Request: fold
Amino acid sequence: MTSLLDRLRSPNHTGERRCWPCTVTNAVLLGLACAGLSRRRSRKFAAALGVGGGLAIALRGYLVPFTPRFAPRLADRLPGNLFHADGETPGPAVGDAGEERKSRQAPDSSGSLGGDTAEETGEEVLTMLLERGVVVPEGETLYLAEEFREAWREEMRDLRERDARGLADALRESAPEGTVTDVVEQDGGPFSETKRWFVVSDGSGDPAREEWLTRPIAVAEIGAVRALADWGDLDATRRAQAAGPLRTLLESCPVCDGPVEETTEVECCGGPGGTQADAPDDVLACGECDSRLYTFR
Reply:
């Protein structure tokens, strides 16, 4: 019986990842439906619905179909701040040399080894990937070529096993010439683990010329750059510029191999949580470990 319950339970929406406002909302709707059924038909049907619906909420996290899809956007329109994280994530504070560091933005899933890509450059990168067969069109949708996807996943499997120093070394090898790389840590306090970012810059010290990469993004982008080395005569700069756009086509998490899905930043229905207190961004996130892998601005 326990094994059956475990198979039915959805870890994405229960346990520590349960969204209690959505659970309560589903429970209230179930109660209203049972009350209405009890008055119009029979108490047996109402009781059966109550038991079945209660089990669904307990094991799956919700009863109303597609709650995880519409609830975050619905929550964003409600007054108050029920689903959002409190305030902004503080920027990294201390670097390897013990000096105070400031980023141009709170680190999230938007930093990239290739930096901010202009629209014109983005079109050039897309054309480059299409010409070399890295991505293939199917109607209006682009997909990774299966051979490239497997090569990329193989690189990520190797990189995810490395510690911070080993990953930083791989970052230095993959970054374009003249790029300065660094590892920055921020003390998460007594109740949180230390946070670590991999930083790439031009060495000028200008925060606007720095890109902060989380470990999952560093693994994904370094893996992409290394896999692209075998796909035509692409220089290091072009490979780095392609790494960010390629992240939009991830199907599995770089660090745990869990399924990747499009969701929002809000902490609702197992979502990955965000840093903004207004309209949530759409993000690609891992359904297993909550790693945010791309932010759609």
The radius of gyration is 22 Å. The beta strands are 135-138, 141-144, 180-186, 195-201, 210-213, 260-264, 282-286, 292-296. The longest helix spans residues 20-40. DSSP finds nine helices and eight strands in the chain.
